[in-house]
């Protein structure tokens, strides 16, 4: 947060000093001569002794990110989209680094210092690859203005408490000045007026601060709890979406395996039918070839026997003619003729078979 010379709290401190100086010029007397300022300082010191006045935040990482632009909460809608994206990325880093204890981190490019719009786009494109990353980043991108306003009060409260500490130091210096004046033995009325003024200012400031602190703390706790619930709900939805996507992928893989198995079974059935057809064709072809060969073989045998019969008949005829020329008796002729008939009949029967 800026702490320049024009900060409103510096203006408030200047007003307090002016009031103190104006009060010094007044000379009102009070009935009591007891000074309140030293007692007030003593009470403040005793209450804050050994303690550091501050406001505790759940996440120092988120506080650091918000502090970088909290003075621009009212102009958050006018911020460049690339700048908003960079803020949402830093807030997402805080969630994953602190709540997930480093078990789940953003891509490495998102942890680099993003000085250009291209750096931011490169990180955002990688966040879109994971539903949990994207949901967290997109949720923060839409809640940048709300988060800024939620943390603005606590940060201003922190600064107010720092101002309170500074006021304590200033009062201590004034008490020292009053003690010096008192030792000089003059301006008792001035000391009383300053004491009364400090009393009134301290009471009013204490009352306002108490109310503001309570109200801011209440608003801060409510806003932070609401933001945490929204982030938790977003992370839950992202986780459910991731689980659903995984189930869909498993279902698709199962259907794919079933289709593959059915296709292989159908292919095996078709190949089995084709194999039977091929075996049938082979058997039919071989059977036909065997029958054809048998017919050819029978015809060849018949031709051989026919040739043999012709040869034998011719031989018998030649023998008969020879016997006739040599005038061998009729008995021999009859015997030869009978033998020729028998042999011829046998050859004829063999050829027919």
Account of the 3D structure:
- This protein is mostly helical.
- The protein folds into 2 domains: 8-257, no CATH class; 293-352.
- The protein is 80% helix and 0% strand.
- The chain has 10 helices and no strands.
- Helix 1 (8-25) packs antiparallel against helix 9 and helix 3 (60-67) runs antiparallel to helix 4.
- It is rod-shaped, with a radius of gyration of 59 Å.
- The termini are far apart.
Fold topology:
Layout: H1 8-25, H2 37-47, H3 60-67, H4 81-99, H5 108-111, H6 117-127, H7 131-142, H8 144-183, H9 188-325, H10 330-352
**Tally of DSSP β-strands:** 0
Instruction: List the helices and strands in order.
Output: HHHHHHHHHH
Principal-axes geometry comes out as rod-shaped
Characterize the main sheet.
Answer: none
| Rg on CA atoms, Å | 59 Å
How large is the count of helical segments?
A: 10
Helix residue percentage: over 70%
Mean pLDDT over the full residue set: 69
Bin the strand percentage. Answer: under 5%
How many domains? The number is: 2
> What is the SS-derived class?
mainly alpha
Parts with pLDDT < 50 across at least 5 consecutive residues: 1-11, 21-34
What gap, in angstroms, lies between the N and C termini?
126 Å
């Amino acid at each position: 947060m800026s702490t320049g010379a024009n900060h409103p709290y510096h203006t408030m401190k200047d007003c307090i000093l002016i009031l103190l100086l104006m009060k010094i010029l007044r000379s009102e007397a009070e009935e009591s001569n007891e000074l309140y300022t030293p007692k007030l300082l003593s009470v403040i010191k005793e209450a804050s002794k050994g303690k550091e006045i501050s406001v505790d935040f759940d996440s120092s990482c988120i506080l650091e990110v918000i502090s970088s632009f909290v003075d621009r909460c009212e102009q958050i809608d006018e911020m460049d989209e690339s700048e908003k994206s960079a803020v949402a990325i830093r807030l997402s880093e805080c969630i994953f680094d602190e709540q997930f204890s480093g078990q789940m981190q953003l891509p490495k490019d998102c942890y680099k210092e993003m000085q250009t719009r291209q750096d931011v786009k490169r990180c955002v494109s990688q966040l879109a690859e994971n539903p949990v990353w994207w949901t967290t980043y997109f949720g923060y991108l839409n809640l940048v203005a709300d988060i800024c306003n939620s943390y603005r009060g606590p940060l201003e409260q922190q600064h107010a408490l720092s101002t309170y500490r500074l006021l304590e130091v200033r009062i201590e210096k004034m008490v020292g000045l009053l003690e010096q004046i008192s030792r000089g033995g003059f301006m008792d009325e001035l000391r009383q007026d300053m004491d009364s003024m400090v009393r009134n200012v301290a009471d009013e400031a204490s009352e306002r601060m108490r109310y503001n602190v309570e109200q801011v703390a209440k608003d801060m706790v409510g806003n932070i709890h609401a933001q945490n619930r929204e982030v938790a709900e977003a992370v839950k939805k992202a986780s459910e979406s991731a689980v659903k996507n995984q189930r869909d992928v498993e279902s698709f893989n199962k259907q794919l395996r079933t289709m593959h198995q059915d296709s292989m079974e159908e292919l095996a059935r078709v190949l089995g039918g084709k194999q039977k057809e091929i075996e049938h064709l082979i058997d039919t072809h071989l059977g036909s070839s065997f029958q054809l060969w048998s017919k050819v073989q029978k015809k060849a045998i018949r031709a051989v026997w026919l040739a043999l019969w012709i040869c034998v008949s011719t031989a018998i005829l030649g023998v008969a003619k020879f016997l006739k020329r040599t005038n061998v008796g009729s008995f021999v002729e009859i015997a030869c003729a009978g033998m020729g008939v028998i042999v011829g009949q046998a050859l004829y029967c063999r050829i027919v078979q």
